[in-house]
Amino acid sequence: MKKEIFERFLKYIKIDTQSDENSETCPSTSKQLDLAKILSEELNKMGLKDVSLDDNGYIMATLPSNLKKDVPVIGFISHMDTSPDMPGAVTNPKIVENYDGGDIIINKDLNLVLSPGLFPELEEYKGQTIIATDGTTLLGADDKAGITEIMTAINHLIKNPEIKHGTIKVGFTPDEEIGRGVDHFDVEKFGAQFAYTLDGGAIGELEYENFNAAKASIAIQGRNVHPGYAKDKMINAMLVAMDLNALLPVNQRPEFTENYDGFYHLIGMQGTVENSSLTYIIRDHDRDKFESKKVLIQDCVDLLNKRYGEGVLKLELKDQYFNMREKVEEVYHIVEIAEKAIVQVGVEPKVVPIRGGTDGSRLSYMGLPCPNIFAGGLNFHGKFEFVPLESMVKATEVILKIIELYSQK
Fold first, then answer.
1. CB 372 within 8 A of CB 355
2. What does the alpha-carbon distance between residue 204 and residue 152 come to, in Å, rounded to a whole number?
3. % of the chain at pLDDT higher than 90
4. Which of 16, 134, 149, 176 is flagged as catalytic?
5. Which of 223, 308, 320 shows the shortest CA–CA distance to 280?
6. Fewest CB atoms less than 10 Å from the CB: which of 12, 200, 302, 338?
C-alpha cells in the first residue's frame, strides 16, 4: 500500500490543477479536467459503478455493498484544484527517505531550506519519508494527498473482496480553493447519508468545526487635484484606505490569532489617488462574534464616509460559508466513528477546529454532514509545503477502518 500511495501521489502532483478566482466558468480552469479525466478513467478500470464526470468537473462513483444487511451509505470526498497562490505542477519534488531531523535543502540555488528551526513540526517525522517541493512550486498535497488516499483505499477494497463493506460513494470536486467547490455538487445524486472530506493537515487531525466566513470588498472613490492646489479639495483614496485599515483591531489579524480566534485578513489592495480598493476575508468560529465583525467593518466605512463625504467608500459584504458544527452535531456519531478509527490504526486523535473552510462546511448545510479527516500535508499553499508518506498511509488506513466500523453496524 505504501508503494502505491507514493506512486499515485507523485503522478497526481505532476498535473497542474490551479483554480482561478477571476474565472466565471466551472471548473474555473480547464486544466483541472486533466486530472479529472485521469481519475474517472482509473475509477472505471477499478470496476466502480456509476462513474460520472459532468461538465462542471465533478466526479462521482459508487462501490456497491457486499453485505447482506443494510448499513449506512458513506462517502469520501477530496478536491482536485490547488491554490492559485503559486505554480501547481510539481515536476521535481524533493524526496527525503529516513529523514534525520535536520535541515532539508529544497533548493540550493535559491537558498531555500525546510528547517525544523522555522517549522518545528518536522521533528515529529524523524525517520520517515518526507515529500517536499523544490522551492519553485507548491506541492499540492492540498488536496492531492486526499485524492491519493481515497483512490488507494477503494482500490484496496476491490483487490480484497473478502473485506466486508457497505455502499461507498466517492466524490472529487473542482475549485475548493476559491470557495466554489460545491457550487454544483448534486447531493441527491451522490446518494450518501453522510461523508468525510480528506482535506485536513497533520496526522491525527479530525475536524467538525470551521470558520464562519465572509468577504468584504471596499471601493474608495477619491478626488484627484493637482497637489499644488489641493488644499481642502483633494481626497487621496490610498490614504482613505490606510485610515480604514487602521480602524480595524491589530490583534485580530491572522498573524496574531490561533485556535478559536477570529480575524480580519487583508488579502488585496490596489490604489491611486483617484481610486483605491481593499479586500478582506472575515473569519470567526463563533457566529455572534462573526456577525459583530461584519458590523464593525460596516461601522468603519460609515465613519469614514462621514469624515470624507457620503459615498466615498462603498462596502460589499458577502457570506461565504458557515460553521459546520451546527449540522454535524445532529449526527455526532460520524465524528465518534472517525475518532475511533484513528485510534484503532494507532494514531492519537487531535480533534481541533479548522482555521479555514472545506467543501464539507457547505455540504453539511446542503444536507450532507461532512467532518474533515487529516490527509497529512503541512505548510499548504506555499513553497515549504511537505507531506510525510507515512501520514498518507495512516490516512488511508483510517478510511478503511471507518468503512469496517460501519460494516459492523
1. no
2. 19
3. 92
4. 176
5. 320
6. 302
- Segment 40-64 mean pLDDT: 97
Separation CA 315–CA 296 (nearest Å): 12
Report the pLDDT averaged over residues 341-347: 98
185-198 tens-digit pLDDT: 999 999 999 999 99
Q: 244 phi and psi, to 5 degrees?
A: -60, -50
Q: Which residues have C-beta within 8 Å of that of residue 263, sequence separation ≥ 6?
A: 252, 253, 254, 256, 257, 282, 283, 284
User: What class, spelled out in words, does domain 2-209+323-407 have in CATH?
Assistant: alpha beta
81 is annotated as an active-site residue: yes
Domain 2-209+323-407 shares a fold with domain 219-321: no
Looking at the DSSP assignment, which residues form a beta bridge with residue 218?
278, 315
Burial tier of 366 (Cβ tally within 10 Å: 0-12, 13-18, 19+): middle
Q: In terms of Cα–Cα distance, which of 53, 8, 2 is closest to 151? A: 8
Q: Catalytic one among 16, 81, 207, 209?
A: 81
Separation CA 150–CA 147 (nearest Å) = 5
> Would you say residue 251 has pLDDT above 90?
yes
> Would you state the CATH architecture of domain 219-321?
2-Layer Sandwich (3.30)
What single-letter DSSP state applies at residue 264? E
SS (H, E, C) 143-200: HHHHHHHHHHHHHHHHHCCCCCCCCEEEEEECCHHHCCCCCCCCHHHHCCCEEEEEEE
Q: Is 176 a catalytic residue?
A: yes
In degrees, rounded to 5, the angle at the alpha carbon of residue 354 between the alpha carbons of residues 349 and 359 is 110
Residue appearing with cell numbers 510525510: 388
pTM of the model: 0.88
Please give the Cα distance from 396 to 390 (Å, whole number).
Answer: 10
CA 327 to chain CA centroid, Å, is 19
Mean pLDDT of the chain: 95
Distance CA 222, CA 270 (A): 13
Domain limits, the chain: 2-209+323-407, 219-321
List, in order, residues 6 or more apart from 228 with CB less than 8 Å away.
Answer: none
